[in-house]
């Protein structure tokens, strides 16, 4: 009978040793909790949003399909579709949109892009059309349809700068937008937005053919000059777009060939100038070869 209890005694001893080992390990012996998963932001369809331009990825789809690039933050499906079956995504709050924006849309023919969010500041749009027929591009909101800012025939490549202003009734306002494209061939549109705090100081040179421009340049209080030339036959306009999102300043507005030096005054005093010290991008609307040289006459060696 005593031998029959030996396994029970041994089992009890083993259990006691195990309890002592666990007590010696303390907190290290407790189970680890599962890692917490960070919540994702608003759902996105066929898109990848990127914090920087360098991290953009492209989705491969048939040529007739509309694609875009935005951060792969979610794989949820859209809540609704537009009249033509184009996927629509719900708007996200502006607090979630205060970040660099970089998206790309590709398609063929007449289509409308998915929704995107822009914040107060400056948005840069690059458009490319590879067809032989019409190419029209406009930016729309839920409550407003604007006039096309591109209305061309045949192949097109150009850049546009837009000043984004809250409650803007005459231009691009902050919030949710889509882009409507009317085309007869394949096209690509890229949009970018960042929020620079500094820019290159003059002397600065720009040049191109057709619609274009760039950024960023820093202008301090004082006087500057813009040496501008244009070899086209139609409209030639040059605007300064302040990075924080204010009404752009039209500094050159003419037709046809142009070759002049234009003075500009930068001042905190609105009575002296509408151009305040700050960081600016330059937008050019043209139909020919153009060049700009922005100089500070007080610092000719810069």
Description of the molecule:
This protein has 302 residues and is mainly beta. 8% of the residues lie in helices and 42% in strands. The protein is built from 2 helices and 20 strands. The protein has helices at residues 6-25, 94-97, and strands spanning 67-69, 80-81, 87-88, 101-108, 111-112, 116-118, 121-129, 134-140, 150-153, 156-164, 175-183, 186-193, 204-209, 212-219, 222-230, 235-242, 249-255, 258-266, 278-285, 289-295. A 5-stranded antiparallel beta sheet has the order 1-4-12-7-10, with no helix packed on it. Strands 5, 6, 8, 9 and 11 form a 5-stranded antiparallel beta sheet that branches. It is globular. The relative contact order is 0.13. Mean pLDDT is 74; it is low at 1-84 and 86-97.
Topology:
Blueprint: H1 6-25, E1 67-69, E2 80-81, E3 87-88, H2 94-97, E4 101-108, E5 111-112, E6 116-118, E7 121-129, E8 134-140, E9 150-153, E10 156-164, E11 175-183, E12 186-193, E13 204-209, E14 212-219, E15 222-230, E16 235-242, E17 249-255, E18 258-266, E19 278-285, E20 289-295
Antiparallel strand pairs: 1-4, 2-3, 4-12, 5-11, 6-11, 7-10, 7-12, 8-9, 8-11, 13-20, 14-19, 15-18, 15-20, 16-17, 16-19
Proportion of residues in helical segments:
under 10%
Strand content: 35-45%
Shape: globular
Question: What Rg do the Cα atoms give?
Answer: 29 Å
Work out the number of β strands. 20
Which class do the helix and strand fractions yield?
A: mainly beta
Report the biggest beta sheet as strand number plus sense, adding barrel if it closes.
5 strands, antiparallel
């Amino acid at each position: 009978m005593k031998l029959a209890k030996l396994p029970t005694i041994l089992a009890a001893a083993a259990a006691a040793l195990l309890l002592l080992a666990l007590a010696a390990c303390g907190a290290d012996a407790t189970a680890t909790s599962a890692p917490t998963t960070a919540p994702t932001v608003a759902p996105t369809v066929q898109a990848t949003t990127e914090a920087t331009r360098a991290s953009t990825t492209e989705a491969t789809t048939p040529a007739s399909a509309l694609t875009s690039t935005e951060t792969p933050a979610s794989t949820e499906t859209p809540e609704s579709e537009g009249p033509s079956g184009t996927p629509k995504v719900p708007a996200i709050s502006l607090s979630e949109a205060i970040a660099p924006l970089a998206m790309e849309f590709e398609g063929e023919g007449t289509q409308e892009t998915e929704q995107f969010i822009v914040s107060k500041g400056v948005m840069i749009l690059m458009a490319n059309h590879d067809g032989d027929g019409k190419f029209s591009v406009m930016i729309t909101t839920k409550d407003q349809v604007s006039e096309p800012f591109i209305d061309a025939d045949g192949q097109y490549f150009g850049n546009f700068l837009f000043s984004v202003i809250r409650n803007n009734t005459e231009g691009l306002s902050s919030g949710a937008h889509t882009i409507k494209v009317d085309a007869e061939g394949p096209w690509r549109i890229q949009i970018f937005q960042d929020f620079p705090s500094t820019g290159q100081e003059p002397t600065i040179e720009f040049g191109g053919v057709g619609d274009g421009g760039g950024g960023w340049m820093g202008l301090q209080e004082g006087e500057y000059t813009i040496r501008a030339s244009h070899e086209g036959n139609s409209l030639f306009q040059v605007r300064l777009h302040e990075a924080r999102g204010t009404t752009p300043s039209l500094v050159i507005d003419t037709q046809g060939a142009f070759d002049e030096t234009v003075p500009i005054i930068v001042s905190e005093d609105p009575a002296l100038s509408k151009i305040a010290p700050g960081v600016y991008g330059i937008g050019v609307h043209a139909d020919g070869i153009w060049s700009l040289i922005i100089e500070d006459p007080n610092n000719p060696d810069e």
